[in-house]
Amino acid sequence: MNPLMAPESTQAVTRAGHGATALSVNVNKVALLRNTRHLGIPSVVRAATLSLEAGADGITVHPRPDERHIRAHDVHDLAALLKQWPQAEYNIEGNPFHNLMDFIRAVRPHQATFVPDSEGQFTSDHGWNLAADGARVRPLIDECRALGVRVSLFMDADPAAMPLARAVGADRVELYTEPYAAAHSTAGQAPQIDRFAAAARAAAAAGLGVNAGHDLNRDNLADFLHAVPGVLEVSIGHALIADALELGLPETVRDYQRVIRRAAAPA
Questions:
Q1: Residue 183, class by beta-carbon neighbours within 10 Å (0-12 exposed, 13-18 middle, 19+ buried)?
Q2: 3-state DSSP call for residue 96?
Q3: If you classify domain 27-262 with CATH, what class do you get?
Q4: What is the per-residue pLDDT across 84-109, written as a single tens digit (0 to 9) for each?
Q5: DSSP assignment of 165-189
Q6: How far apart are CA 241 and CA 252, in angstroms?
Q7: According to the model, what pLDDT value does residue 6 have?
Q8: Three-class SS of residue 132?
Q9: CA nearest 174: which of 120, 219, 223, 111?
């Protein structure tokens, strides 16, 4: 069976190999550091290779129109690299109304994550309003699926919005986890966990797979995965690259995978 066409319930096993949540390493911050000089270091491809060798289940990039971190050649260079790692997943994020679709058409990654960022936005900070944008998004989702590319929509943890995501043709949603991360280890953690768990259950009920990302780290990831059901994939960049400055990139990837496995273990 082609793993790209496998049911959502089996894709986590296919990609992660251990049946737990898959870890996709976002290498944007590697590119951001490289772009401060003209020496080509650190290498985005080398960082991705080290991550995959250490057990990452995939690589994520978010090429913004201003190329302040990932540049067009990085998208293509990583696509070539991922051909050597057939068990790993390539996820390209971005706004489909800006520059994302050209990359999707050119390299046909395993997954396209549609994010409703403005062109100059500092970082992603909200999910789609599908009541307003669903009609525009749907034909682009249809195009991706015709190309064999799975589509995930970046969404706030709103249970009521999950059927709308399914109605426009999405395969998955990526829950925007910054509100949970900001509340972690505070009195607000429990209500945020309840909110995200409810959104995940609503997504599953609508027939959607669930991804998650934004400000997840080694301290808050296990609590999230333990409480929020059915998370197929987490995409982590900023915290993981920051941890790599202390631990080294391979050991950091291995440590995140240990956190994921602990979260998946029976209580």
A1: middle
A2: coil
A3: alpha beta
A4: 999 999 999 999 999 999 999 999 99
A5: HHHTT-SEEEEE-HHHHHHTTSTTH
A6: 8
A7: 36
A8: helix
A9: 111
Encoded tokens for 165: 């995501």
Q: Where are the domains of the chain?
A: 27-262
Q: pLDDT per residue over 197-241, tens digit each?
A: 999 999 999 999 999 999 999 999 999 999 999 999 999 999 999
Over residues 126-178, the pLDDT tens digits come to 788 999 999 999 999 999 999 999 999 999 999 999 999 999 999 999 999 99
Read off the pLDDT of residues 9-55 as tens digits, 9 standing for 90 and up: 334 433 444 468 999 999 999 999 999 999 999 999 999 999 999 99
Assign residue 231 a region (left: φ > 0; alpha: ψ between -120 and 50; beta: otherwise). Answer: beta
Amino acid at 88: A
DSSP 8-state code for residue 152: E
Question: What residue has token string 């790993």?
Answer: 88
Query: Would you state the structure tokens that stand for residue 162, as one six-digit string?
Result: 């999950």
DSSP 217: -
Tokens of residue 38, six digits: 């003209």
Catalytic residues: 62, 93, 214
pLDDT for 102 = 96
Which tokens go with 145? 């699926």
Q: Which residues contact 68 (CB under 8 A, 6 or more apart)?
A: 32, 35
Give residue 73's pLDDT band: very low, low, confident or very high (50, 70, 90): very high
Peptide bond just before 266 cis, omega within 30 deg: no
Residues 6+ apart with CB under 8 A from 198: 157, 159
Going by C-alpha positions, the residue among 110, 195, 193 that lies closest to residue 161 is 195
* Residues pairing with 90 in the sheet: 59
For residues 64 and 101, what is the distance between their CA atoms, to the nearest angstrom?
Answer: 12
